[in-house]
């Protein structure tokens, strides 16, 4: 009889550290056969490139949430396909805007369409950005669902908050989900022993059988993509990013600078630009905002301050 595949779901808002944790898990399980399904909010998979750079095979489902009706069918088909492969673990990294509260109904749909039960659902690992969580929770509704459906909560970026802030965030997490195990970390540097523990079943009594985007039109995130050929001055790109940060909830990408190819990673007010071996055909940057037209205007305004080349967003 085929051994059940251990299935883990990774959730967490944009920039919380999902891909960082997944890379650590992959290294931890390097003696095992692993499958990965990666779900990005936009249609460019920056995180998929990072995992491929680590030598992993990644199946991407992009431009929406795998828990929403628009991509649910493709997600179920992917789970069925993976269930027939000789893997021991399957990790699903969901979009930062995903509401995963219908994960159990999706697994039941997989079981109904495949020969027998192929997966041992080991739970949802929810990564929380301690530095931005309380502010994000007020305006971004999927974050609450992600926390409530988490079996394990990795409270990340603890090095960036005070003891008082850490206590406030922890108390809020407990109020939302008292059953989850909370694991504090910085840079997602945690012991992964919890992955072998017993899973508390949180989802049975959770309302919301049909998951989809639960943001209102006024605050629903919109992704804009910059694609450009050529070499750019790193200092000017930093100034451009500084100018648009107040309108953004997430910025990431790869840019060809006069100092070489670098990865751009912006969450909240924290900007990280570091060397990378990844070299796309052209520079790519994903900008995600809930500010609508004002954000779009600000992008063009800030760009024109520092560059003569025409900016086209997709």
TrEMBL record:
Every CobW/HypB/UreG nucleotide-binding domain range: 8-183
Gene3D superfamilies in alphabetical order: P-loop containing nucleotide triphosphate hydrolases
Gene Ontology annotations for the cellular component aspect, listed alphabetically: cytoplasm
Domain of life: Bacteria
InterPro entries assigned: CobW/HypB/UreG_nucleotide-bd, P-loop_NTPase, Zinc-reg_GTPase_activator
Short name of one Pfam family: cobW
PANTHER family per UniProt: COBW DOMAIN-CONTAINING PROTEIN, COBW-RELATED
The protein's name in its UniProt record: G3E family GTPase
Organism: Pectinatus brassicae
């Amino acid at each position: 009889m085929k051994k059940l595949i251990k299935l883990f779901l990774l959730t967490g808002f944009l920039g919380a550290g999902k891909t960082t944790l997944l890379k650590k898990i992959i290294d931890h399980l390097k003696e095992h056969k692993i499958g990965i399904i990666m779900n990005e909010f936009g249609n460019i998979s920056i995180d998929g490139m990072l995992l491929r750079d680590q030598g992993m095979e990644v199946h991407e489902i992009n431009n929406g949430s795998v828990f929403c009706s628009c991509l649910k069918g493709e997600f179920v088909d992917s789970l069925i396909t993976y269930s027939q492969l000789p893997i021991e673990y399957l990790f699903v990294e969901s979009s930062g805007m995903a509401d995963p509260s219908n994960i159990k109904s999706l697994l039941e749909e997989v079981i109904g369409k495949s020969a027998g039960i192929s997966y041992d659902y080991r739970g949802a690992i929810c990564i929380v950005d301690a530095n931005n969580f309380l502010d994000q929770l007020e305006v971004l509704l999927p974050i609450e669902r992600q926390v409530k459906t988490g079996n394990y909560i990795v409270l990340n970026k603890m090095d960036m908050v005070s003891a008082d802030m850490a206590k406030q965030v922890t108390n809020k997490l407990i109020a939302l989900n008292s059953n989850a195990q909370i694991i504090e970390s910085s840079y997602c540097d945690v012991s992964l022993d919890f992955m072998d523990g017993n899973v508390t079943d949180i989802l049975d009594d959770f309302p919301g059988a049909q998951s989809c985007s639960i943001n209102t039109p006024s605050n629903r995130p919109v992704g804009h993509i910059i694609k450009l050929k050529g070499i750019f001055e790193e200092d000017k790109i930093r100034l451009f990013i500084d100018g648009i940060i107040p309108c953004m909830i997430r910025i990431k990408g790869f840019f060809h600078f006069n100092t070489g190819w670098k990865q751009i990673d912006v969450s909240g007010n924290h900007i990280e630009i570091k060397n990378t071996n990844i070299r796309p055909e052209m520079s790519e940057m994903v900008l995600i905002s809930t500010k609508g037209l004002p954000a779009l205007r600000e992008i063009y305004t800030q760009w024109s301050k520092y560059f003569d080349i025409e900016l086209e967003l997709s």
